[in-house]
Specification:
Layout (H helix, E strand, L loop, with lengths): L19 H5 L8 H10 L1 H6 L4 H7 L2 H8 L2 H19 L4 H5 L9 E5 L14 H16 L3 E6 L7 E4 L5 E4 L11 E2 L9 E6 L2 E12 L2 E7 L7 H4 L10 H21 L6 E5 L5 H14 L3 H10 L1 E4 L10 E2 L1 H14 L4 H6 L10 E2 H8 L2 E4 L2 H10 L15 E2 L6 H4 L2 H11 L20 H29 L4 H7 L8 E6 L15 H9 L5 E6 L7 H14 L8 E4 L4 H10 L2 E4 L11 H7 L3 E5 L13 E4 L10 H25 L8 H17 L2 H23 L5 H16 L4 E7 L10 E9 L8 E10 L5 E8 L4 E4 L2 E9 L6 E9 L14 E3 L3
Parallel strand pairs: 1-2, 1-9, 2-8, 9-10, 10-13, 13-14, 15-16, 15-18, 16-17, 18-19, 19-20
Antiparallel strand pairs: 3-4, 5-7, 6-7, 7-8, 11-12, 21-22, 22-26, 23-24, 23-27, 25-26, 27-28
Length: 855
């Protein structure tokens, strides 16, 4: 039976506590412990049952209970304090961003597009690290006063909830989210009801609503296609996160990218910068171009120049297999008509997503790289991997110079540091540690007595063990286990034992079962009488990844061996709550991916911020601090070919066992008369200081603002003048250079060293180039010099820009300079020609490089 009419009934809060409603609707409570404790106080069991959703909780509370709270002077005082705290936070004008831009135009607004956002468990629109990173980015931007708006999708079912069958096989369930009982509001169109968008797809329009989530000072807008005027198939587009086949995936990405830009226009927002967080949202570049063509009456090349200058693309994927690549027929089906609005034919549209001519497949990362003026990886190592991975887009350019930078990820400390540790840091460091922008504040960790730091960590381990026992009992109860087994689960684990945590997505390269490689050696570690070890696992395999599911099953079945009973536990349904208990309570965080397949990883940062030490391969963010003595590293970052992976696992498993047995456990259990592991605490303190200083989301956002957002806004401003003259000129210049590039050739070389070359000397050199219709101002000519290798190739050691060319007639120009002799032995030089224009974001923006090595 269906209702004849539906209405939404809001809870009626007594006047004395009515401000609780506004506090509940701003997700700042998710990183402000004082506020979240206020809601927990209302009813701890109901708070947990509502997945820590204050809006749903208030809606389920009886009027009598609310009146009772309104009569409680203490609760009223705390409510007012929470509301005043939020108001003060929102009204604070002394933010980092305001100070950073006080001498510049601060009218910056960045639109941050992501397929998922992890703000709080009650808003199930994330699956893992990418979403948590996006959530931390929004939170840190809010704390720092960076004007930023998030754009995502309102998934009705979100990502799946995990539970295990009795034999340990992962099962999935997809409960539907009730958006009306979440800290989320429908965006309204005045008195006309919900604001409705029309998004072009397959030559027709799909309707979508916009739902708004307040994230501190900033807003997250989520598109929802579950609109009654859509077909059932179209209503399901925003049903499941990463659900369905490629057909569903491309439709989701059209709604996210194209629909997201349409949503911003409907909201009256005009971002100067667009941040594409992974390739899922790359279609936004096309919609921005279409919008400018429509509103300013320019052609595609001109609109492309304007849009490219304001786009920042962050790639999170270190392997080609992780990139969305759609069949070209699918792209033509959904965007063939749309291409006409871009003044492109379908072939021209498809070429924007091809890695190279004839490659086939429409690559979303290639689309983003081609249309963005700036791109970055998410760690120093990942930046290096990405430059090698995509060097084919810049033929002739050394991998080291491919224009993909790096901003290493960071974590939002207030969201992840435990209340116990936060209280300790407040006492000894003061509140400035929360801002995470003052690196000097972390030197004050030395003032914290060893005993206080250790006891604080021990309390968190106690709470983790208690939580894990309760979760284990609940898991067994859900599987229909006997009362005796359920009761026994409450005695699992040892609150005093060395506790290792491993929690992440169960992708093959992350090697969740590496530590099971030699079962008997592992048993010896787990059951050592003097130095016992215990391990907590958590994580989800993709529903279609049967290999990943088998990894989960293997861990669960191993944990049931009688000789390791109570020493290993797999926690179901890895989410923000499970993650917080783990990172805040374990002693060691284990991370053993195959190098270099972990782009960054942030779970280890969260654990380190709470005092846990790392045991990790030299991958992702850990590669940047592996040599600082703040943890242990498995191997030296060796990269093995695929056929040697079994051997690699055997070698690195042995290294892992040796570290745990000979270094980690002895240091943990080496106690003084006072019971303190002094060397362990010393390493804890050093690790916390280094990680919190370098890998916090405040530093990450600051890097994005200063290195990418502000320069992108300035590029956009230069091109976005009244008549778009600079953009038109740049587009015309680009076409001229592209058409003439193949005709550039070297026609003469003057090289006359004065006597035998000697180290430290240099000699004049000049190169004559045929530029055709181009002028010397259109190019930059560099001399590349270095050692000549046995295979006669040139190992680049340095480069020098040659002087602007002298006209020697008929399209020929002479460029002059000097060649240095930096080292003894066989050395040589060659030349490189790059496009040059004052409005180019980078000399590599056109993907054109001409190597002159044969004259």
């Amino acid at each position: 039976m269906k209702p004849v009419r539906t209405v939404f009934v809001e809870p009626r809060l007594p006047k004395r506590i009515e401000r609780l409603w506004e506090v509940a609707h701003n997700t700042r409570w998710s990183w402000d412990y004082a506020t979240s404790r206020l809601f927990m106080y209302l009813d701890p069991k109901l708070w947990a049952a509502c997945e820590e959703d204050p809006v749903r909780m208030l809606g389920r509370m009886s009027p009598a209970r609310l009146e009772e709270l309104a009569a409680d002077d203490s609760f009223v005082h705390n409510t007012e304090a929470a509301a005043d705290s939020l108001a003060a936070y929102l009204g604070d004008r002394s933010t980092w961003f305001r100070k950073e831009t006080e001498s510049r135009d601060d009218g910056l607004l960045t639109a941050y597009f992501s397929a998922e956002f992890g703000i709080a468990d009650c808003i199930q629109i994330f699956s893992g690290g990418l979403g948590i990173l996006a959530g931390d980015h929004l939170k840190a931007s809010s704390d720092m006063g960076v004007p930023l708006v998030g754009i995502g999708l309102a998934y009705q079912h979100g990502y799946f909830h995990q539970y295990l069958s009795p034999d340990g096989w992962q099962q999935e369930r997809y409960p539907a989210s009730d958006f009306h009982t979440m800290p989320m509001r429908m965006v309204m169109d005045g008195d006309r009801g919900p604001l409705t968008l029309e998004i072009p797809i397959e030559g027709r329009n799909i309707r979508a609503w916009i739902r708004e989530v307040l994230v501190g000072r900033n807003r997250l807008y989520l598109l929802d296609t579950n609109h009654p005027e859509n077909t059932p198939a179209d209503r399901s587009i925003t049903s499941d996160l990463y659900g369905g086949d490629q057909d569903m995936r491309i439709r989701q990405e059209i709604i996210l990218g194209i629909g997201g830009v349409i949503a911003l226009e409907a909201l009256g927002l005009e971002p100067r910068v667009y941040h594409i967080n992974e390739g899922h949202a790359a279609f936004l570049a096309l919609e921005r171009i279409r919008t400018i063509i429509r509103t300013r009456g320019v052609d595609f090349p001109t609109a492309r120049e304007i849009v490219g200058g304001q786009l920042v693309f962050t790639t999170h994927t270190p392997v080609p297999a992780g990139i969305d690549v759609f069949p070209e027929d699918l792209v033509k089906r959904y965007l063939g008509v749309y291409a006409a609005d871009l003044t492109l034919d379908p072939g021209q549209l498809l070429s924007l997503g091809r890695e190279f001519p004839g490659s086939g497949g429409f690559n979303m990362a290639v689309l983003a790289l081609r249309l963005s003026a700036a791109a970055n990886g998410v760690s120093e190592l990942h930046g290096e991997v990405s430059r090698k991975m995509w060097r084919g887009l810049w033929p002739g350019l050394p991998a080291a110079e491919v224009p993909i930078g790096a901003v290493t990820n960071g974590v939002h400390l207030q969201s992840w540091v435990s209340p116990d540790m936060s209280s300790l840091l407040d006492r000894y460091l003061g509140p400035r540690w929360r801002a995470a922008r003052d690196g000097d504040v972390w030197s004050r960790l030395e003032a914290i007595p060893d005993e206080e730091l250790w006891r604080t960590h021990e309390r968190r381990r106690d709470r983790l063990v208690a939580y894990a026992r309760n979760q284990a009992a609940n898991q067994l109860e859900g599987q229909g286990a006997s009362p005796d087994r359920i009761s026994a689960a409450r005695d699992l684990l040892d609150p005093d034992a060395l506790t290792v945590g491993f929690a992440r997505r169960f992708a093959p390269y992350k090697r969740a079962t590496l530590i099971l490689t030699d079962p008997e050696r592992l048993v010896q570690l787990l059951t050592n009488r003097d130095r016992p070890l215990q391990i907590l696992f958590a994580g989800k395999a993709h529903p279609k990844d049967h290999f990943g599911k088998d990894l989960v099953r293997r861990i669960v079945q191993f944990s049931r061996r009688e000789d390791v009973s109570g020493k290993i536990l797999f926690l179901e349904d890895y989410d923000i709550e499970v993650a917080r208990y783990l990172v805040q309570g374990v002693d060691v965080w284990l991370n053993n991916p195959r190098v270099p397949k972990e782009a960054s990883g942030t779970s280890g940062m969260k654990a380190a911020a709470n005092g846990a030490l790392q045991v990790s391969t030299r991958d992702g963010w850990w590669a940047e601090v592996a040599d600082l003595g703040i943890g242990w590293t498995i191997g030296r970052g060796e990269i093995y070919p695929e056929e040697q992976h079994p051997y690699q696992d055997e070698v690195e498993a042995r290294l892992l066992y040796d570290l745990l047995e000979k270094e980690v456990a002895p240091m943990f259990y080496d106690r003084g008369r006072d019971g303190l592991p002094r060397r362990w605490v010393e390493m804890m303190r050093a690790s916390m200081g280094e990680v919190c200083r370098r890998f916090n989301s405040g530093r990450m956002v600051r890097d994005y603002v200063t290195k990418y957002y502000l320069p992108a806004a300035e590029r956009f401003d230069r091109l976005w003048d009244a008549d778009l003259a600079r953009a038109k000129a740049l587009a015309s210049w680009r076409q001229k250079v592209v058409d003439a590039w193949d005709g550039i050739r070297g026609t003469g070389l003057d090289w006359d060293p004065d006597g035998p070359p000697a180290v430290g000397g240099e000699a004049p050199v000049s190169l004559t180039l045929h530029l055709g219709v181009l002028s010397p101002a259109d190019v930059s000519v560099e001399l590349i010099h270095g050692r000549v290798l046995p295979d006669t190739s040139l190992e680049e050691a340095g480069r020098r820009r040659l002087n602007t060319g002298e006209d020697v007639g008929t399209g020929h120009y002479r460029f002059s300079g000097t060649c240095p002799f930096d080292q003894a032995g066989r050395t040589g030089f060659a030349f490189r020609v790059l496009p040059c224009h004052e409005d180019l974001a980078s000399p590599y923006s056109l993907g054109l490089v001409k190597i002159i090595d044969d004259i």
